Amino acid sequence: MVQQAKRSATTVGAILASARQLFIERGFAAVSIDDIAAGAGIAKGGLYHHFRAKHDVFEAVLDAVQAELAAELGTRIQRIEGHRSPHTIATNLRIYLEAATQEGLRQLILVDGPVVLGWERWRGIDDRHFMVSIRTGLVAIMPAGTPPTEIEAATRLIAGAVAEAALACGAAPDPVAAVHLHCRLLETMLCGLQQHGAGSHPD
């Protein structure tokens, strides 16, 4: 039983590794189930034993990629506890923008993701991984006693800004300069949230 579970996990890992490489290199539409199975070194029937359709493979790949980015972001944000700096948080969010400058990852996460899975399922993956890290960072810098509803609103505001910034950076003629610019503007937004919260206004 244990050996069977190990073999199954190994097969799934090979399928996802093959699919990830192909989706990044070619995009979802240009990849077939046969391509994925061949890359994994298995028969097409073996792939269907674990996944019902190409969409399901894609969702698993996207979830894994988002989990990796979120884990790195979460690790960085945990390090700033006690160092409540919008600059540090904006710098850490840079990893998401830099990922978007890699053409294959941008296609996978920001272009194919919402189209293939639909907005709700794509947003669910984003919420599960990325939003948690942003929320953690905002709790660290926003004024003590900020209502949870304001924390949630600010989280969605920053997440939306980062997603739009990622698209802009990926399409920019000079991606490095674009990442730098958007990180600086994100820092300005975070400074405002740190000083005034989400629902207060300066005098």
Automatic annotation (TrEMBL):
| Superkingdom classification of source | Bacteria
Name the DNA-binding segment ranges.
32-51
The record's listing under InterPro entries reads: DNA-bd_HTH_TetR-type_CS (IPR023772), Homeodomain-like_sf (IPR009057), HTH-type_TetR-like_transc_reg (IPR050109), HTH_TetR (IPR001647), Rv0078-like_C (IPR049484)
Annotated transmembrane regions? none
> Matching SUPFAM superfamilies, A to Z?
Homeodomain-like
Pfam families linked to this entry: TetR_C_41, TetR_N
Q: Where is the HTH tetR-type domain?
A: 9-69
Instruction: Please name the PROSITE patterns in this protein's record.
Output: HTH_TETR_1, HTH_TETR_2
Q: Does the keyword NAD apply?
A: no
This protein's name: TetR/AcrR family transcriptional regulator
| Gene source species | Acidovorax cavernicola
| Classification lineage | Bacteria, Pseudomonadati, Pseudomonadota, Betaproteobacteria, Burkholderiales
